[in-house]
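hey so i finaly got around to running the thing on Ribulokinase from Micromonospora sicca. pasting the sequence first so u can double check i didnt mess up the copy paste, my clipboard has been acting weird all day
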Amino acid sequence: MGRYVVGVDFGTLSGRAVVVDVADGAERGSAVHAYRRGVLTDWLPDGPALPPDWALQDPEDHREVLRTAVPAAVRAAGVDPAEVIGIGLDATSCTVLPTLADGTPLAELPELRDRPHAWPKLWKHHAAQRQADRINALAAERGEPWLARYGGRVSAEWQLAKALEVLEDDPAVFRRAERWIETADWLVWQLCGRPTRNVSAAGFKGLRQDGRYPAPDFLAALHPELPDLLPKVDGPLVESGARAGALTAEASGWTGLPAGVAVAAGAIDAHVTAAAARSVEPGRMLAVLGTSTCLIMNSDACHEVPGVCGVVEGGVTARGWGYEAGQSGVGDIFAWYVERALPGSYADEARRRGVSPYELLDALAADQPVGGHGLLALDWHSGNRSVLMDHELSGVLVGLTLATRPEEIWRALLEATAFGARTVVEAFTAAGVPVDELTAAGGLTANRLLLRIYADVLRRPLHVLDAAHPAALGAAIHAAVAAGAYPDVEAASAAMGARHRETWRPDPARAAAYDDLYAEYRALHDHFGRGGTDVLHRLRALRNRAHHTPGAC
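ok and heres what it spat out for the 3d tokens, dont ask me to read them lol
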């Protein structure tokens, strides 16, 4: 048997590939490819303007990662491709696209290229909130048993809300689609020539529970044609780490890997990262800190957790119950502040010091006493995923004075995301799902001030994963299982998972001070998010009316 596997992680703005040793998970080579189109939020390429809250992607960007990053990673590793025994991949989720029966994306048909609904909808496409609201209301009214598995609310980010949005806004595209498929599953299809559905995405994003999707009569009550979605999402279900097929000759030409090597089932990025972090045992929660945050864990029992994004049997690994929660804006909030709100004088100072604006703000904010800025923020710039599941909420900042400095606002934003994470952890523990260990992974773990704040706010040790590309490593671990090198993801994770780099422990004095600030956060959270006022929804509606572009979709 060969010695290596390849993992490919398809993120929001780029894809990355790693070549790792099957024996111990050591990285031998890697490569990153930035998407040419990135995220389409304002305009289609050579097409119409997009309305607010849209986020699309180009499927060709994803194919190009397979053609460039995979062979580049193999070259960087200096290994013989013949020694590669498998390839696995993950993608952001719920990122879905409509295709023909042969897998051709509708966005690539000349007659549909200028139709926004024909394009893949990225996870942070939030324009389907009104559809999500109707799904939630109907499910609650009918007492649908699956609703409690999603914390009582279905997200606008997920499959059903997005499909209903397409059906209502562009029914011709909905009818033309012969498949409605997650990007990770579509990419596996491209590699092995066989359409499959991964159990995790089908459960967490497709509402598949106890062996079935929502019933046809429920779908018909939302729209008479919506039951037609069921054959579009049907297909062989494949468990985490299982073999989906073998690499085709065409895909071999793209990747440079031998035809016939094992292709693992598609996976959700945060979920495979749990394997990389050795966080697949019950009680071990993983926080993937990136543009958004996903909080993932396994349990040996099914509990209903208010505000959770899903509880799915076999959802993280084939054994046990997988749980997911999250925050829809974290790194995106920090990037928004630096790119759109930071005074130019700070950018100039950062250049003078030879650091990034992020590093400058961290340095200026690091020594502030807890609560010394007099500010409090709600981390809802991209809506709220957990525990409110409402993407028509928006960010809030209170306590500003004429003396407030940019670095104080920066720290308040960092703290807001930590408070949001604490809200999620408390929801788990209150529902009887203990969080015995917390590990962090993702790009934001490079920010040491952020890690210190999280440990203090959460009042628990925070372990930090030592891996440059944790999701890609997790995808490679799944590839090793698909290739038969290990019997299951748990065994492969124990052998190939990354070691923790360091542990951040809470400071008792700062933690106590943050308790007081967190209490105020919860008061603000419940006022704006749980019925104290609907001003954020009214402001969103006014904005949407003001920016409505007739004919845009």
